[in-house]
Amino acid sequence: MSTTNKKASLLQKLGKGLTVGSVITGNTFFHGPPILTLGITKLFKNLKKIDETNIQLANSWIGINNQLIEKVLPNLKWDISIDKALDLNLDGRYMMICNHQSWVDTTVNQYFGLTRMPLTRFFTKWELIFIPFVGQAFKILGFPMMKRHSKAQVAKNPELKHRDMLEARKACEQLLSQPFTLLNYLEGTRFTTEKHAEQQSPYQNLLKPKAGGLALALNILGDKIDALVDMTIVYPDGAPDYGDFWLGDVSRIAVDLRKIDIPDWLLHGNYEDDPIYRERFQQWVDQIWTEKDQLISQMKSKYYQ
């Protein structure tokens, strides 16, 4: 590529970056304050209408970001496969698990889910509440926000463990007043080759799953949900950074959704205190993860032949 062409390409990316950044920032400042205001109002008058309005605002927020994707990334191709057993609708109650490679994963989930599923919430760190507008919106919209304590902190004060469990249970139960999708990234962190090697993960394409959060959520919500959904995301060009995505460096994204049957025994156990149940639950998750690992290899082979 000539120097002139390189400069033109750089200027084009710079212009796109400024456009995307301006729209996302403006979108956040447009939708964030009303959600925050209604959330404060709810402290004094707990009306269902407030929740409904906030969800509409959140969906509008996501909708504008989705329109931005279609406008600035017109060449991005989506390869979406949905299990026929999945009957997704906006009034449903779903739990979802997903592999995790990039901050783009959540954008993919929102792009896919806006017209197919209720607003997606996910377990997030309490510290995010200090992010202006976004963190407070997470809390107001019912995202389970966890104050995660280290093993050393729990060992020093065992009460912290029970407090965490109580907060998680309360957050999950609050979702039952409305349609919801609750997302859990079982790996607990984004996949990298370094983390994969450090863990000595038995899976080719995944980190080891952390089953405790899923066990808790299923214990609370399992008999009240319409489906447990397994979302698998593959980036044929490699997992992108958030900036790479918006600058158009991703040509294709593949998404597969399937329904996972929940066995009856799974809903009637105590993951924390029953070692036999815990081992059985972990084996169940391992089987899901093994099948998911094989699916990712199959999806990749479609593009890498």
UniProtKB/TrEMBL annotation:
Organism: Acinetobacter tjernbergiae DSM 14971 = CIP 107465
SMART domains documented for this protein: PlsC
Domain Phospholipid/glycerol acyltransferase: 94-236
GO MF entry, a single one: acyltransferase activity
Designated name of the protein: Phospholipid/glycerol acyltransferase domain-containing protein
UniProt cross-references to SUPFAM superfamilies, sorted A to Z: Glycerol-3-phosphate (1)-acyltransferase (SSF69593)
Pfam families named in the record: Acyltransferase
Domain of life (superkingdom): Bacteria
